Amino acid sequence: MAEAHAHHNPFDPQHLFDHVQDSTSFDVPKFLVPSGKIEIPQPFNGEVTEAEYKAPVFGFDFGLTKFMVIEVVVALIMVVVFVRLANRMRRSDVPRGRIWNMLEAFLVFLRDQVARPAIGHHDADKFLPFLWTLFFFVLGCNLFGLLPWAGSPTAALATTGALAALTFCVSVGSGMKKIGPIGFWKAQVPHLDLPFVLAIFLKPMIFFIEVIGLFIKHFVLAVRLLANMMAGHLVLAVITSFIVATAGSLAFWGVMPASVLGATALNLLELFVGFLQAYIFTFLSALFIGMAVHPH
User: Fold this and answer.
1) Would you say 132 and 124 are in contact if contact means Cβ atoms under 8 Å apart?
2) Residues near 178 by Cβ (< 8 Å), separated by ≥ 6?
C-alpha cells in the first residue's frame, strides 16, 4: 500500500527525478500513447524494458537512451545550419537575413569576447572551431530541455563529463604540443626562489596539488553545468506537480493558474539560463586552454 501511494505521490523524489533523468523512452501524454511512453528501439541490447536497461553487454552498456537521441538531433541541426551558412558565405561576405546575422553575431562575439581575451590573439583562432562547436552544442542541449516531453542532455553527468573531458584533452594536449610534455608538466609548478633543501620537499608537493587541481577544475566544469540545468528542471517539475496534487479538489482552481504562470515565468528564466550556461561553459573552457598554452 505504501509503495502504491508513493507511486502516485507527485512530490515523490524518485518520481520527480524520473522526469529529468535519462531513460530508454520518451514520456508523452497518454491520449497519444496509452502507456504514456514511447520506447526507443535497442539494436545493440535487443528490445529491453526500462527495468532491464541496466543489464550490460560484455561489461558495457550499449543501450540507446533519450539523451543520446536528442544529442544526435542537436548535432544534425548544427551540421545543417552551419553547412548552409558556410555555403552562403562562400558566395558573399555580406551577411543577409536574420538567421545569418544572428549566427555571425554569436560567432564574432565568441571570437572577440571569449576566445581571444582568454587564449590570446595569436593562438585563439586555431581553437575557435572547438569553442564554437562546444557553445552551440551545449546551447542546443540546454534548449531542448524546454521542449515538452523532451529533456536536457546537459542535466546528465555523462554528457557534461564527456564535454569537460574533451576540454581537458584539448587543454593538456595543446599545452604539451606547444611547450613539450616535460615543459608543460614542469610549468605546473610556479617559479619559487627557494633554498635547495626546501625546494626538494615543497616542489613535489606543489606539483601534486597543481595536478590534482587541474583535474578538479575540469570536474567542477562538468558539475556546474549539470547542477544548473538539473535544478531548473526539478523546480519546474515541482511547480507543475502542484496541479496534479490538487486535482479533483476546490484548491485546484486556485493552484492551477498560479502553477501555470509560475512555470511560464520559470521557463523564461530557464531560457536565459540555457544561454548563460552555454556561455560560461565555453568561457571557462577557453580560459583553461589559455592557461595551458600560456602557463606563465
Assistant:
1) no
2) 123, 184, 293
Whose CA is closest to 236, among 151, 118, 170, 167? 151
Tracing cell 545543417 back to the chain, one arrives at 80
Instruction: Please give the pLDDT value at position 3.
Output: 43
Q: Residue 114 and residue 132: Cα distance in Å, rounded? A: 10
Mutual angle of helices 98-109 and 66-91, in 10-degree steps: 100
**Which one-letter amino acid corresponds to residue 293?**
V
Nearest in space to 44 (alpha carbons), one of 36, 35, 53: 53
Strands 37-39 and 25-27: antiparallel
- Per-residue three-class SS string for 182-204: HHHHHCCCCCCCCCHHHHHHHHH
Q: Could you please report the per-residue DSSP string of 196-251? A: HHHHHHHHHHHHHHHHHHHHHHHHHHHHHHHHHHHHHHHHHHHHHHHHHHTTTSTT
Burial bucket for residue 156 (CB in 10 Å: 0-12, 13-18, 19+) = buried
- Rg of the chain over all Cα atoms, to the nearest angstrom: 24
What is the C-alpha separation between 215 and 168, in angstroms, rounded?
Answer: 8
Q: How far apart are CA 107 and CA 255, in angstroms?
A: 43
Q: How far apart are CA 22 and CA 178, in angstroms?
A: 39
Contact of 141 with 154, CB cutoff 8 Å? yes
Helix axis angle, 157-179 to 196-245, nearest 10°:
150
233: left (phi over 0), alpha (psi -120 to 50) or beta: alpha
Closest CA to 124 of 137, 134, 113: 113
Q: What is the residue whose three cell numbers read 587543454? A: 171
pLDDT single digits (tens) 52-107: 555 444 445 667 888 899 999 999 999 999 998 888 888 877 777 788 888 889 99
Q: What is the pLDDT of residue 2?
A: 40
